[in-house]
Write a structure and sequence with these properties.
Blueprint lengths: L1 H49 L6 E6 L2 E6 H39 L7
Antiparallel strand pairs: 1-2
Length: 116
């Protein structure tokens, strides 16, 4: 009887761990989608500012502060932010890919089948 409880406990731990891994996978996926949106927004801003005269006044929201600058001052900062977001996107995508491999291995090892 105690062996069955121990087996059940192991199964519960396996299911719990699998659920944690799936939640992490979903969190990665959500963050990646958010970063994709940010990259697209930055791309549009860079594209628009590139066509604008460099001495033209523009505004940039940093946190909760609206800053007045020229296009020449803002454009490099926006491009830099876009590049940093792309780096984060690539790193998270690689982490997601590695996590997916670990999840698949865990799923195969413990013969877990997901019902849809």
């Amino acid at each position: 009887m105690s062996e069955k409880k121990e087996e059940q406990m192991d199964d519960q731990q396996i299911v719990y761990r699998f659920q944690q891994m799936r939640e992490t996978q979903m969190a990665f996926t959500q963050k990646i989608a958010e970063l994709q949106g940010d990259i697209e927004e930055h791309r549009i801003v860079v594209e628009t500012l590139s066509k604008t005269p460099k001495d033209r006044k523009c505004f940039r929201l940093v946190g909760e502060v609206l800053m007045e600058r020229t296009v020449a001052e803002i454009l490099p900062a926006v491009e830099k932010n876009k590049n940093q977001i792309e780096i984060m996107y690539n790193q998270l995508s690689a982490k997601l890919e590695e996590h997916n491999k670990q999840l698949a291995t865990f799923q195969d090892k413990h013969k877990i089948r997901v019902k849809n």
